[in-house]
Amino acid sequence: MHHFQYRNGNLYCEEVKISDIAEEVVTPFYLYSYATLSRHFTVFDEAFSKLPHIVCFSVKSNSNISILRIFGKLGGGADVVSGGELYRALKANIEPKKIVFSGVGKSRSEIEFALKTGVLMFNVESEGEMMVLNACASTLNVRAPLSFRVNPDVDPKTHPYIVTGLKENKFGVESSDALRLYLLAKDLPHIEIIGIDCHIGSQVTELEPFVDALTQLKRLVFELKNKGIELKYVDLGGGLGITYDREEPPHPNIYAQAIVSHLEGLNYTLILEPGRVIVGNAGILVTKVLYTKRHLEKNFIIVDAGMNDLVRPSLYGSYHTIQPVEKRDREMIVADVVGPICESGDFFAKDRVLPDVKSGELLAIMSAGAYGFTMASNYNTRPRPPEILVKEDKFFIIRERENYQDLVRGESIPQFLL
Ligand SMILES: *Cc1c(COP(=O)(O)O)cnc(C)c1O
């Protein structure tokens, strides 16, 4: 059951008519469906039911604390990549023992915060980080749970900006170097080796790269075992793609089957770090048409959302379906959908066939639940939009729109300028 659907030509989110929300909340705004979020999480989680596993939701894909809370209540953990994300996960009451800390550039203070929190494990990405982790743990007189993020050098065949597991990428330790690093870690008094990790990239729509990566991890796991290093956790990262346009990614059940068959009967807890696949299609960005322009060569639909609100089209050239919130009989035109930001890169669609919408009409930019709000900025000093969660026939503002005071908070004018 799809929870963003038309009824009598009006787009609904669950039981709520989206145009009704727009009467109360000024556009643009992000809108999420609770039913979709919880179903996506549950389907993914249950797909792995044959194995001991933890679904650590990737907080960077959508970090609203209400959203994290949904997954936490369903038994989920969190994959965090900064102290700020750890703070959010804790605010959402995610159990520390279900939080993994990833990221290529963890600072000392972030490491200390995570050690004090007692996170499940640190996915360490360099020898230097391992040494800092050991030193921080020594200061706090604890042992830091470590797994190395190994770069398996597989090509996930996705957008170059979101490939992370190739030799030339900055992420992880090289798999040829992993054994040496584990042996070093073994001798560090404040390190406890517990796992191995990888994350090959994002919006991956084929199974093969995941299976290749897992095969490599397994090979390392056995090599380590031969050296007397027993692991408890195998973390396969996130990256499963979704349908934005015509992609046909494997269903989580198929993805899970492929993975489970490689780990069944072995005594490891599998960790998964899905982001996009859980939240991507559970959220939309609702925006209003401000103006329309017909130039000789092009039609423009100028909307009140901008690249600061949803940067994916500008940053990656990503495709998002755009549809009117109220369907009417209209001529179709070819147009660019653009925002108010003073940049030519500020667009949501180029040369798109769309109904000839008029000023004041609402558009829904679909599949905006992942890397939408979390990548929003204040560029052009624009307040970031509110986030709204729909559950059945009710909606809840889970983050207010910023106001102008928010935008200058923390700034001050030095004495000599007064
Ligand atoms: C971004 C990221 C994820 C989530 O990726 P998705 O493509 O959204 O599933 C998981 N793990 C790590 C380490 C990441 O950086």
Compact summary:
The protein has 418 residues and is of the alpha/beta class. The chain has 12 helices and 21 strands. The protein folds into 2 domains: 4-32 and 280-408, Beta Barrel (Lyase, Ornithine Decarboxylase, Chain A, domain 1); 34-278, Alanine racemase (TIM Barrel), CATH 3.20.20.10.
Question: What distinguishing features does this structure have?
Answer:
TIM Barrel, 21 strands, alpha/beta, binds pyridoxal-5'-phosphate, globular, 2 domains, 418 residues, 9-stranded mixed sheet, Lyase, Ornithine Decarboxylase, Chain A, domain 1, single chain, 8-stranded parallel beta barrel
CATH architecture of the largest domain: Alpha-Beta Barrel
Please, how many domains? 2
Radius of gyration: 23 Å
What about the largest sheet? 9 strands, mixed
Q: Would you report the number of β strands?
A: 21
The CATH topology name of the largest domain reads: TIM Barrel
Overall mean pLDDT: 96
Helix-strand category: alpha/beta
Roughly how much helix do the residues carry, as a percent range? 25-40%
Principal-axes geometry comes out as: globular
List the total number of helices: 12
Proportion of beta-strand residues: 25-35%
Small molecules bound in the structure, each named once = pyridoxal-5'-phosphate
CATH class of the largest domain: Alpha Beta
Indicate the low-confidence ranges by residue numbers: none
Distance between the termini: 60 Å
